[in-house]
Each structure stands twice: as C-alpha cells, then as structure tokens.
Amino acid sequence: MKIYKRHSWDLSLDEAVAIQEKLQAEVITQDQFKEPIKYVAGVDMGFEDDGRISRAAVAVLSFPDLELRDTSIVKRPTSFPYIPGFLSFREIPALLDALEKITITPDIIFCDGQGIAHPRRFGIACHLGLFVDLPTVGVAKSLFVGKHEELPQTRGSWQPLIYEAETVGAVLRTRDGVKPVYVSSGHRISLTTAIDYVLRCTPQYRLPETTRVADRLASSTKD
DNA sequence: GCGACAG
DNA sequence: ATCTTGTCGC
C-alpha cells in the first residue's frame, strides 16, 4: 500500500517534539471515510537481541467477518529508544516497511498504543495515520495520560478519558469482568465510531482480532 | 523539585 | 517490549 513520508527519522528528542507539535495540527478526529468498511488491519511490534532488532507485523482481516486475508512481517535494526511520549519514533519506521508490502489496503488500522490520548495529543495512532492517510485507532492495554470514572464490569460499557479538561479517549470494557482497553482517535475517525469498531472487532477476546493476529506474527521466532 | 511514564 | 512456571478461577 501507499505510504506518505512526512519527515526523516534521524532525529533528536527536541526535533521529535517539534514534529509532533507541527503534525498534530493535521490530525482529524472526525469521521472522514466511506462505509461500508471491508478490511480492518492491526499492527504490532516484537523485539529481539535486547531491543536492538525490531520485528513489525501487519494483519489484514475482512470486515465484519474477521477472516485473515493478508499478512506482512519485516525485521530491521531498531533506530530509536523507547521513551514515553515518543513511542511512534521507535516503532513506525519498521511498521511502514511492513505496511508497504501489504497488497490489500485496509479501511481502518488499529494500533497498539494511544491516539490523541497523549501529552501532545499525538500518539502512535495519529502519527501512523498521517503517514498512511487512513483512519487509525489507538487501542492501548494500559493508561498513559488522563483520568476516568469507574466503569461497569459488562462488555460494551465505557467512560470518557479526561486529560487537561478534555475528552481525549475512552476506557472501554471489551469483555465482561476483564481489564479495559484505552481507545482514542488516531486520524480520520471520531471517538464514538472508534469505540464501535473496536467492539465489532473484539467478539471474543480483550484485544481486537487484528491486533491479536499481528501480535502472534510479530512474536513468532521465525521470520 | 518529585514522581509517572503507551510499548 | 522482554526475561519466565506454576497457579488461581471459571
């Protein structure tokens, strides 16, 4: 699929901050895509050799039946350290290599991490969204920024995630009695629509099927 | 200044 | 993210 390179990846932390602040202005948090959605994708990362090697994986599933239709895995040297607030600079380079090889362009991409629920409203889902110019959703396994009320134990219930007096995402229960996930808009999709698609992609487990498939691909010892 | 801190 | 067995609970 097509990738729109917006900047180089050889950056200092100060330059990375400048890029986040500049590109943030281009993020769209409203629905801007045509339905019906036919394909959904999930991306995930794995590491080897104490983090020196990155493994990126992409899984494209049909929607709404969620059957595997395309996959891609790439391995390359890791070029940026993990620093809270700058996850995208560590993971996106490899993810783009993997996405470039995908033959089916998905209609929505689920990312492992936050969207606008980020200190500068520019988490990995937003960053990736601008590079692929497709709807992206951040589905994180843990809280990064913001606070929220307690939420019911039933699947489908959710509470707004508030940060600096703004709703930046939602805490969503995707399975009864199981730890919730943190959903936020990445690009070209609203929060309520994002929640709807996350629920439609989590028929059985806590995380979206797309992410689960990508996760096992990125974790496999093979190449 | 002191903690907290997506993966 | 990754290093790792058994174990508690439905």
Automatic annotation (TrEMBL):
One Gene Ontology cellular component annotation held by this UniProt entry: cytoplasm
Molecular function GO labels: deoxyribonuclease V activity; magnesium ion binding; RNA endonuclease activity producing 5'-phosphomonoesters, hydrolytic mechanism; single-stranded RNA binding
Reported cofactor(s): Mg(2+)
Catalytic activity: Endonucleolytic cleavage at apurinic or apyrimidinic sites to products with a 5'-phosphate
Domain of life assignment: Bacteria
Protein's job: DNA repair enzyme involved in the repair of deaminated bases. Selectively cleaves double-stranded DNA at the second phosphodiester bond 3' to a deoxyinosine leaving behind the intact lesion on the nicked DNA.
UniProt-recorded name of the protein: Endonuclease V
Encoding gene (name): nfi
